[in-house]
Amino acid sequence: MTTIITRPEPRTRPAVEAGTRIPEPSGTPVAAARQADPPAVLVEGATKRFFVGRGRKPVMAVDDVSLTVGRGEIYGLLGANGGGKSTLIRLMSTLLTLDEGRIEVFGHDIEREEMAVKRLINRVSVDAAFFKKLSPFENLLFAARMYGIPDGRAKEESIRILARLGISEKRLGRPTEQMSRGMQQKVAIARALLTSPTVLLLDEPTTGLDPRSKLDVQAYVEEVRETQDASIVLTTHDLAEAERLCDRIGILDSGRLVVEGTARELQARVALDHALAPTLHSAFMAYTGRSLDDDVEEPTGEEDGDD
Questions:
Q1: Disulfide-capable partner of 29 in 68, 135, 168, 188 (CB 3.0 to 4.6 Å)?
Q2: Which residue, 158, 45, 39, 48, is CA-closest to 99?
Q3: Radius of gyration of the CA atoms of the chain, in A
Q4: What does the angle CA 43 – CA 192 – CA 246 come to, to the nearest 5 degrees?
Q5: By C-alpha distance, which of 196, 33, 36, 226 is closest to 120?
Q6: Residue of higher predicted confidence among 3 and 196
Q7: Global pTM exceeds 0.70
Q8: Taking CA 154 as the corner, what is the angle to CA 153 and CA 157, rounded to the nearest 5 degrees?
């Protein structure tokens, strides 16, 4: 199985032409990370199993995954439903415990220094949770108080961020339960951005958004990375979104990281090694043998159905 491992590069790096061989790595991501300052996220041999019933074989949701996310980098995770993306995000966010391996956020171990990690991260999932009887404004103010953000600053920033995402001030007093799913997802994104996280974990953040709203969110994610120096891990089923936003992309299949590289590197590799069209879709199909919309046959053991 071929794995492309690259160090984070500026987004202006020269294109890799199809047909040009990409050198294989001389070391692992973990070894490279140890030679420099602590990366934003370091994952080393992460493994997570779910036990789904007596007498049944445990399901391997994340299988010996190692990767790094550089400071200020947007790292994309692609995979079919049930491939392990959301489980890996939950491990990074301390919502799940590792069976094996380790994960660090800016040098802080997620198990030994959980509270330090929580102060650095925020997460947006595809199924946002709210106090549904409260308005978007009230939900954001509650989150701000949890992070010690003064009310005056929180109100100002809430209005600014929501407006940037296309939610006008006149809608801020409406109960969240009366808003569309797409609007609720925007509120979830705004709530995460309000806390100015150093590491932002975005688990399919634009799912359910209309095309205009999706572009608004993508543009704002880019803006946050540039203006707040945030490091971002993004899972998505939208290949155009991955190509636009991500500095590097890792493809997961059945819990394993099967290939990793920039979008152009993956496109060049699939054209060279498989004689397929140089697209991310071709790369995904070649390295997983499945479609993004396919479900893994085995259950993941996660009650909410996320992958």
A1: 68
A2: 48
A3: 19
A4: 50
A5: 196
A6: 196
A7: yes
A8: 85
pLDDT tens digits, 102-133 = 999 999 999 999 999 998 999 988 776 778 88
Tens-place pLDDT, residues 208-261: 788 888 888 898 889 888 888 899 999 998 999 999 999 999 999 999 999 999
What are the domain boundaries of the chain?
29-129+199-288
Beta carbons of 105 and 199 less than 8 angstroms apart? yes
Angle, vertex CA 53, rays to CA 50 and CA 58, nearest 5: 35
- Residue 295 CA, distance from chain mean position: 19
d(CA 138, CA 173): 8
Q: Are 289 and 27 in contact (CB under 8 A)?
A: no
Q: How far apart are CA 82 and CA 238, in angstroms?
A: 16
In angstroms, the CA 49 to CA 58 distance is 6
Other Cβ atoms closer than 10 A to 187: 25
Q: Give yes or no for a contact between 247 and 11, defined as CB atoms under 8 angstroms apart.
A: yes
What residue spans of 19-176 are helical by DSSP H? 29-34, 85-92, 114-120, 136-146, 151-164
Per-position b or e across 58-81, b if 16+ CB within 10 A of its CB? ebbbbbebbbbbbbebbbbbbbbb
- In which residue are the tokens 């500095």 written? 247
What does the alpha-carbon distance between residue 302 and residue 255 come to, in Å, rounded to a whole number? 14
Among 90, 82, 81, 9, smallest CA distance to 46 is for 90
